[in-house]
């Protein structure tokens, strides 16, 4: 891949693209130095403009886009990665009222509409949007993580008695990303794929069940290296 192509890339996303992992030794979230963006930058000897933000939903992503519009329009490609925070629930509320209706942080219809807005505005700015899929959850770890210090039985009740609920719900947002790419005829980098191809990908996910760990970031970087090399 030509270096000029890499310098033409910026990133909109959440903690995945920001390079956030759970540091077991420090017992807190931290930025991984060797995150997939940093790994790609070092390999190609250039800088990728990264506007990713920890905890960002697609709605915050739109605000960041508008704030960074002048910079985004100067880049040929814009990688867009959202969904992991959007599909999450208020687990504390669920643990108290498992029989009530609970909405995700960003309901799927709103996620779709706001994502469409970002895609269209990116195209209007003259940058080419490329969507990133969601790395898969490790559903059992995720359940243990979000239910810590809460009523696990009530949360499991809301899930219908199985953590498969988490996996399917998360996948519905991933499917929407694929549908949007198809709807607009734009490229998608399926960073979910290399994880699923492993079969058991648990060694590549943090203890929280949702963030790729150092090995996971290397896996993403390896996949994106090939995808970026094929850009026209």
Automatic annotation (TrEMBL):
Origin species: Mogibacterium diversum
Top-level taxon: Bacteria
Transmembrane segments: none
Protein name per UniProt: Uncharacterized protein
Pfam families noted in UniProt: Lipase_GDSL
Gene Ontology molecular-function annotations: phosphatidylcholine lysophospholipase activity
């Amino acid at each position: 891949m030509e270096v000029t192509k890499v310098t033409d890339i910026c990133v909109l996303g959440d903690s995945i693209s920001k390079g956030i992992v759970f540091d077991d030794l420090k017992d807190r979230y931290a930025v991984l130095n060797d995150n997939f963006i940093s790994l790609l930058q070092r390999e190609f000897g250039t800088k990728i403009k990264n506007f990713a933000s920890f905890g960002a939903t697609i709605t915050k992503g739109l605000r960041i886009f508008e704030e960074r519009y002048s910079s985004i329009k100067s880049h040929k490609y814009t990688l867009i990665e959202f969904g992991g925070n959007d599909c999450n629930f208020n687990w504390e509320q669920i643990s108290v009222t498992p029989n009530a209706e609970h909405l995700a942080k960003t309901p799927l219809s709103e996620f779709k509409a706001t994502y469409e807005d970002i895609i269209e505005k990116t195209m209007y700015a003259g940058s080419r949007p490329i969507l990133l899929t969601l790395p898969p959850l490790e559903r059992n770890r995720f359940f243990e993580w979000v239910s810590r210090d809460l009523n696990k039985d009530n949360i499991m009740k809301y899930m219908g008695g199985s953590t498969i609920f988490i996996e399917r719900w998360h996948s519905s947002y991933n499917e929407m990303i694929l549908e949007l790419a198809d709807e607009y005829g734009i490229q998608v980098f399926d960073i979910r794929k290399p994880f699923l191809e492993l079969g058991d990908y648990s060694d590549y996910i943090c203890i929280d069940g949702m963030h790729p760990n150092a090995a996971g970031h290397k896996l993403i970087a390896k996949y994106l290296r090939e995808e970026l090399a094929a850009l026209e």
